[in-house]
Amino acid sequence: MSQFLPEAIQAFLPNTIQLVYLVATGFFIVGIRRLGSPATARSGNQLASFGMLMGVAVTLFDREIISFEFIIAGVVIGALIGAIAAKKVKMTAMPEMVAVFNGFGGGASALVAWGEFTRLDPTLFETQALVTTGLSILIGSITFTGSFIAFGKLKGFIPGGRIALPGQNYINLLLTAVALGLVGWFTVDPEYQLVFWSLFGLALLIGVLTVLPIGGADMPVVISLLNSYSGLAASMAGFVLGNNLLIISGALVGAAGLILTNIMCQAMNRTLLNVLFGSFGGGDDGGSEELGDKSIQQTFADDVAIQCSYAKKVVIVPGYGLAVAQAQHTLKEVANLLEEKGVDVKYGIHPVAGRMPGHMNVLLAEADVPYDQLYDMDQINPEFKSTDVVLIIGANDVVNPAAKTSPGSPIYGMPILNVDEAKRTIVFKRSMSPGYAGIENGLFYNEKNQMFFGDAKKSLQSLAGAIKELD
Amino acid sequence: MEDLIFNLFIFVLASFVGFELISKVPPTLHTPLMSGANAISGITLIGALIIAGGPDSLYAQWIGFAAIVFATINVVGGFMVTDRMLEMFKKKEDDK
Predict the structure, then answer these.
(1) A115 contact residues in B (CB cutoff 8 A)
(2) ipTM of the complex
């Protein structure tokens, strides 16, 4: 757009653009900081989006941009698709949505590097630009296909279990080494088309092959890691173009994704290497056999209603099953009825409840559960001793005592909610089948525990009805 | 070579800022944070604009066009969906 401006102003443009980029960078940093507290989070996100708008608007005045047909068409189409997807998506499908958006972001970075390489004479490229072009294409393409495989696994288009050849991990490591070798070759001989295309194709393939073997339960960790990758890819594209805003924002996101990934792994008591290369569940499991043929106690809505209504303190432990049954609103109704009876109701949220850290908080917020009733694991664990009834709804592995008691179990060492310290636990569950991780749960056989079988939503509806009848 | 060193400095320092910013966020906000950070990674849109608006080759412009569509989906969708999530975080007093 610079050609429309008077020449006197044009002289200042390059510096002005850089200064606006600097301001936008500040908006991103302050925005991410504000995303860290519930009270300021929304304004933080708005601040970051405003920073993005500034960055994009001022870039249109870059001297290199002289035609706008492609830009207008691309922005309109992309904005429409993005806006419709963001409006329509269900809150339970949030992990899939983030995966898809992330995949597009990574893909865009690979395309930017490819486009820059295509439009300029390769012999003019310096070594640093060639290395980062190669890396941008490699990381961006892995992010692109990896994210869509993660999406497919979460949606159920692709079976959630481990899909792999024998020795798949070694094959993947070998392919990654070959890909890095191709980046080196490309740097030395950028005009050799075969190397360029092999690198592109191989990167796309690596994205598929590294995500396919990972189980569905670990997908959030993978998405978080891929989020970090897409930041890195954007940063590499920034090196190619010599654009500070891209380098900085990409690095910020890259670091953010890595920290988040680490937090998620810690919550499951696993290392990132174990998530990426080790299979989980399904194998031999020392913890399950000793459970033997112990008996369970079954209970029904009327009885649960009485126990809860006459309790002083009730803690609700929600899990993904609650979200799948779309029962958040019914749960909120039950909690309201109990509060009217003077019962102290709290929600205990495990860090990996739902499918991503914080996912359960979002789902409950959607049902208007105030966030000051939601307690993290560390806050709620000391309270179970004084709790009369714990309602465990659609959660399983996060309350499995095997994590504390049986060293042979795959989840041994994972911090759990100590619900067995409460006077009574009631598990809402469809059937006795093991949880997502495929591990038996000894809590079900505890003498203080009762099972309330059925679909979470229907069970909660009948519970709400039974509580009302008590009046 | 000087450019590379300068850019590397920026890259490394920005990474440290990112580590510090993120490590202080409570678990409640991890999902919106992941989604918001993801929208920021769509910053590659700026690079896409330069490719698609450049005069050098039609071929590159088409690649830039695809990059703009992809990046805009990431940016617009990411920020909107994050806003939708955060809109729902309310304190009890606000309801009544």
Answers:
(1) 48, 51-52, 60, 63-64, 67
(2) 0.92
> What pLDDT score does A204 carry?
95
Cβ of B14 within 8 Å of Cβ of A247? The answer is: yes
Cβ contact A251–B10 (<8 Å): yes
Q: Is residue B17 part of a domain?
A: no
Of A411, A396, A404, which is closest to residue A350 (Cα–Cα)? A396
A436 SS3 class: coil
Domain membership flag for residue B15: no
Q: What is the pLDDT, as a whole number, of residue A294?
A: 64
Nearest Cα residue in chain B from A91: B85
Q: Name A290's Cβ contacts closer than 8 Å, sequence gap at least 6.
A: A406
> Is pLDDT above 60 for A173?
yes
The whole-number pLDDT of residue B25 equals 64
Segment of A36-40, A66-70, A144-148, A222-226 carrying the highest mean pLDDT: A144-148
Length of chain B: 96
Please tell me if residue A215 touches chain B, with a CB cutoff of 8 Å: no
The domain in which residue B62 lies consists of 38-89
Which of A98, A231, A248 lies nearest to residue B35, judging by beta carbons?
Answer: A98
CA distances from A119 to A65, A125, A384, B60, B64 (A): 13, 11, 64, 5, 10
Model confidence pTM above 0.90: no
Task: Tokens for A376, please give them.
Answer: 């993290």
* Chain A contact for B50 (CB, 8 A cutoff): yes
Q: Which residues of chain B lie closer than 8 angstroms to A46, CB-CB?
A: 83
The amino acid sitting at A269 is N
In Å, how far is A243's CA from the nearest CA of chain B?
Answer: 8
The type of residue at B81 is V
For A93-132, list the strands marked E by DSSP. none
Do residue B76 and residue A109 have CB atoms under 8 angstroms apart? no
Q: Which SS3 state, helix, strand or coil, does residue B52 take?
A: helix
In tens, the pLDDT along A252-302 reads 999 988 888 887 777 666 778 777 776 543 333 333 334 445 677 888 888
pLDDT for A326: 81
Sheet holding A344-349, edge to edge: A374-376, A344-349, A313-318, A389-393, A424-429, A449-453
pLDDT (tens digit per residue) in A85-127: 999 988 888 888 999 999 999 999 999 999 988 887 767 777 8
Does pLDDT of A176 surpass 60?
yes
Looking at the DSSP bridge assignments, the partners of residue A424 are A389
Residue linked to tokens 């989070």: A41
Of A36, A98, A246, the CB nearest to B44: A246
Q: Is residue B52 part of a domain?
A: yes
3-state secondary structure of A165: coil
A454: left (phi over 0), alpha (psi -120 to 50) or beta: left
Query: Any chain A CB within 8 A of the CB of B40?
Result: yes
In chain A, the domains with their CATH numbers are 1-88 (no CATH), 95-280 (no CATH), 286-469 (3.40.50.1220)
* CA A448 to chain CA mean position, Å: 35
> Alpha helix (H) ranges present in A381-428?
402-405
